[in-house]
TrEMBL record:
GO terms for cellular component: membrane; mitochondrion. Keywords: Membrane, Transmembrane, Transmembrane helix. Pfam families: TMEM65 (PF10507). This is TMM65 protein. It comes from Alectura lathami (Australian brush turkey). The lineage of its organism: Eukaryota, Metazoa, Chordata, Craniata, Vertebrata.
Length: 136
């Protein structure tokens, strides 16, 4: 006979949610901030010289951001650990239940969404430069 394992409690699911969300806030923030800064600088320098489109500059900025993300991933995870982000106390069967997987995916999705929105802050500083270029 197989013993039934109780599904995770709401508290455990919240723990799973935040355990997954917090690092992804950092990832989303860094990804968007670096992409915006790199894409803008590429467009204003290489883009003008080579005559590439704004979208090509954005794509190259995304490449720079993705490469930076590979290098910074360990630091984001280390920071999350320093903030006391402990691993949820679940049995292997509980960790594999649909409720746990859903909570983890929602945490990642909401975390990266919040991080990406916060990572848009460089746009506050680029308005003047783009207006000057359009005037020329």
């Amino acid at each position: 006979e197989k013993l039934e394992v109780a599904p995770p409690s709401p508290g455990q699911l919240r723990h799973v949610f935040f355990h997954n969300a917090l690092p992804f806030v950092g990832f989303g923030f860094l990804d968007n901030a670096i992409m915006i800064v790199a894409g803008t600088q590429i467009e204003l320098s290489i883009g003008i010289v080579l005559g590439i489109s704004t979208m090509a500059g954005a794509a190259l900025g995304n490449l720079v951001s993705d490469l930076a993300g590979l290098g910074l991933a360990g630091y984001v995870e280390a920071l999350a650990s320093r903030l006391g982000l402990s691993i949820p106390d679940l049995t292997p069967k509980q960790a594999d239940m649909w409720q746990t997987r859903l909570s983890a995916h929602l945490g990642k999705a909401i975390g990266v969404t919040i991080g990406c929105i916060l990572g848009m802050f460089p746009l506050l500083f680029f308005g003047d430069e783009e207006e000057k270029l359009e005037e020329k």
